[in-house]
Amino acid sequence: TGIPAEGHKVAIQAVSEGQLTTGQRYGNIYHFLFEFAPDGRIRRMAEHLDSARVGPLLKALGLIR
């Protein structure tokens, strides 16, 4: 949904939607932050997602109570 960049940092805002093999629909909102070294290689990367959307899915799959 957006890719702002400043200096050696690039942020990616993304949305996913899909259907699991169980037939259940799942979607989430993500934020990725990449930090690049001067030679262009990735130095650091972080991923964040909306945990409120993951909880019900994990419960439905029996992975948490």
Structure notes:
15% of the residues lie in helices and 51% in strands. The protein is an alpha+beta fold and 65 residues long. The chain has a 4-stranded antiparallel beta sheet with strand order 1-2-3-4. The protein is elongated and about 45 Å long. 0% of the residues are buried. The mean pLDDT is 92.
Condensed summary:
With 65 residues, this protein is α+β, with helices and mostly antiparallel strands. It has one helix at 51-60, and strands spanning 5-6, 9-19, 25-36, 42-49.
What's the helix and strand layout?
Elements: E1 5-6, E2 9-19, E3 25-36, E4 42-49, H1 51-60
Antiparallel strand pairs: 1-2, 2-3, 3-4
Note the main attributes of this structure.
alpha+beta, 4-stranded antiparallel β-sheet, 65 residues, 1 helix
